[in-house]
Amino acid sequence: MRGVFRYAVAVFAAAFCACGTSGSSKAARPGKARIAVVKSVAAVPAEERVYAASLADGVAHILERNGVRADLVSDTTLSSALSGRDLVFLVACTKPTPVQVAALARFRGGGGVVRPVYSASPQVVSVVGARPVLKVRDSEDAKERTLLHIVGAVVPGAWNRRAWERQRKTMFAAASALGRSQSPRKGEIHAVWEHSGLGLYPGDWPRTFRVLRANGVTDLFVNVAGAGFAHYASGVLPRSKEYFRHGDQLAACLAAARGAGVRVHAWVICFNATRSDAAYMLAFQKKGWRVRNGSGALTEYLDPSNPDLRWRMVKSICEIARNYPVSGIHLDFVRWYEGTPKPPNAARSVTTFVESVRKRLRAERPGAWLTAAVLANHQSCVASVGQDWTAWIDAGLVDYAVPMNYVEDRSRYAALVARQGAVKARARRIIGGIGVTANESKLSAAQVVDQISLARKAGFAGVALFDLDDTLVESVFPVLRLGMFR
Questions:
Q1: Structural domain boundaries in the chain
Q2: Is 238 helix (H, G, I), strand (E, B) or coil?
Q3: Against a cut of 0.85, is the pTM above it?
Q4: CATH for 23-159?
């Protein structure tokens, strides 16, 4: 463990030293930065604001860790936020107001440069003279390169390319040395979440499994169903656009997995209507399934206390277990929404659902695992979201809980896994979730190695990496397969 931390410190120190030289004296002066990252608040629907904010935070974080000074500002005061800037990254501006469009036009007319990031309305694209520069699924490396090259081209002196290249070489060498210093652990679970449900290469699941096998992955949580969508041939849930475009994704995934040595778990989103189309969102509202936040506004979260909704989700899980040779079912959003008023028995309704799934899964596919993605802080999540996951482990309702320990700070992560692993018998039923490219955390390969080491120290059965994308394949797997995932 001491060796892991020493290598990690070397990597971070190298990054800090390199980044510390990357800005100019002009960029380092106090006051308003020449660059701004604009977070969309007024320019996105209310239900998308949290996600839009996380995207803007990610852009600001990339710039910050590379020594580029930028202010993170809100679009609610766009005119004043743009004043005095040279370059603005406009993140996820999908529904701008006329006032915002006029402010962007004035800024560009005065010589300012606007680069939309991830998405933008056609009106914004027309006004600012540029299309969005990033896609959400781009690797962290691609995002970093794109944003920094824009900074270098637009704001002279704000980014030192030579220092950046030296930093990357130093970090790669240190991370590779760290990877070679590690050892595999027999029987350890190496899981990954696959968020799109289509694999790394839509239409080519065999290629995805070649990557998984080559990199020591043992388990795949593939996102194939939720209350308002199914990527498989469901008779309970509405079949998704991806199903009609690419075919039955669960069947294709399982066919490609044969002989690959990778267990496939159907990832099911339980009490959240994400990926539902407008018609289904309205139908859920009419049924009384959608919950409201503390302000009374409807959310995309669904009511776990509703028996009809619970039965719908149980039926869909039975359907999967009956018709597809999955190694397990992976439950997600099996909880209440944090911001909604909850009944006194909130945890009971969620546990009742898990009990029903456990019973039906044993009947339909004996031996299949039941796992659940859960919130990290088990000491507070019973009260906050009605998710009593340590009790699920103790009662044998789940084979493994997968806490989403999505933090970058080492001390916070260490404290989380130590608390989760305090009961040793329970720790053996935990797969530690690591947020490699989660909204809440962006980790280097060295940080991933360090977090795996801490999960091992806590006595966990293994780890799950979020999620299967180009960053994981290009930057993290090459280090893990040198030792830990060998």
A1: 23-159, 181-480
A2: coil
A3: yes
A4: 3.40.50.2300
